[in-house]
Every structure is written in structure tokens, then in C-alpha cells.
Specification:
Blueprint lengths: L12 H4 L2 H17 L1 H14 L4 H8 L3 H14 L2 H23 L3 H11 L10 H31 L6 H25 L7
Helix pairs in contact: 2-3, 2-6, 3-6, 4-6, 5-6, 7-8, 8-9
Length: 197
């Protein structure tokens, strides 16, 4: 879900939609994908066309997940069959594409503000809408970063001729994720967001 937007595409109807409408559309779109992947594909293609995002932007959203998709596909073929494998992988890829379009067409500040307004009623239950929206927006932004890190770890192993090994893959990935978490924590602390009050 890398934010690679097509030039001159910031004035589309998709970009101008409020955050709540994009999140509602994402929810409905994922439901369509779950029920009927082919209909979901049509929804994703139409949304990308409306947002004037081309194949390059779409590929940037799923590129970090290519190794995961291949492993999942192979596993599904072994334990089930080819149609099941195709359906499972296509559902995940389409959902990632749709979620990626939200981040492509929404700035971080707008996403944070929209989520904060959406969670406003939870204030009556003692929930801080700002902190909750911050957690969700950071989660959305962190997923592609971690997926890209996983892809880079695997590519580095392939370049060194290392065969697939779960431990050899997991250790550098976990170290990289922890390093990213430390940097993120330091950035939040510097902005005074570590205060529990």
C-alpha cells in the first residue's frame, strides 16, 4: 500500500470523498470481494479508474505482498485445490488493492482527522478518539512498510543464494520490525504523545 499517486490525479471524485465515505466504501467493497471475487475485481478496477490510478500504482500496493501471496497460493494448492488457491489469494490481493486506494487518495492528516470525528461518540465511554484514530492510522501506514521490509529481506536472501528457511527469514524481519517500532516510538515521544493522561 505504498503511496504512489499518479501525477495530476488529486482532483478526482475519489480524492474529494470524505474519509467516512471511503472507509464505508472499503467495508462494502471487501464484503463484495469476500462473497464474489470477480465482482470485487470489477469494483477495484472501477475505483482505480475513477481515482485515475494506473497499473503502476496498483502494483505498488501489492508488490510487497508477492512472496506471501506465492507461499499462500502454494499452500492452498497442496492442502485444497487450484480453484480454492486462486480464490483465496485473489480475495487478499483485491482487499489490499482497495485498502491501498484509500491511502493513495487520502493524506495522513485527513485520515487521522476523519477517524477522530468518526470515533467522537466513543468519548462518552471514556475512549480518547484522537488516540484511537492515531493507532488505526499508524496501523494502516505500518502494514505496507512491514510488508516491504519482508520483501527486502527475502530478496536479500535470494541474492545471497539462501534457500527458503522460516528461521532465517523471521529473525531479520523481527529485528527490522522492532527497529521500526523503536523509531516510531521515539517520534511519538518527541511529539509528546507518550503521555498516558
Amino acid at each position: 500500500m505504498t503511496a504512489v499517486a499518479a501525477a495530476g490525479s488529486t482532483g478526482t471524485v475519489v480524492h474529494r470523498l470524505p474519509v467516512w465515505a471511503k472507509l464505508l466504501g472499503l467495508t462494502v467493497g471487501c464484503a463484495v470481494i469476500l462473497v464474489h471475487p470477480l465482482a470485487g475485481l470489477a469494483v477495484v478496477v472501477a475505483c482505480y479508474a475513477l481515482a485515475r490510478q494506473g497499473p503502476r500504482a496498483a502494483w505498488a500496493q501489492v508488490r510487497p505482498l508477492r512472496w506471501f501471496a506465492l507461499v499462500l497460493f502454494g499452500t492452498q494448492v497442496l492442502i485444497a485445490d487450484l480453484p480454492t488457491a486462486l480464490t483465496s489469494v485473489s480475495r487478499i490481493v483485491l482487499a489490499v488493492l482497495l485498502a491501498g486506494l484509500v491511502t493513495l487518495t487520502t493524506s495522513t492528516s485527513a485520515l487521522l482527522a476523519g477517524l477522530e470525528r468518526l470515533f467522537g461518540p466513543l468519548r462518552r465511554l471514556g475512549v480518547d478518539p484522537f488516540r484511537l484514530s492515531l493507532v488505526l492510522s499508524l496501523t494502516l501506514r505500518s502494514v505496507p512498510i512491514i510488508a516491504d521490509l519482508a520483501a527486502r529481506v527475502r530478496e536479500a536472501q535470494r541474492a545471497r543464494g539462501v534457500r527458503w528457511d522460516v528461521r532465517a527469514f523471521a529473525v531479520p524481519l523481527v529485528v527490522g520490525v522492532l527497529r521500526y517500532a523503536d523509531l516510531l516510538g521515539e517520534a511519538l515521544t518527541a511529539r509528546g504523545l507518550d503521555d498516558p493522561a
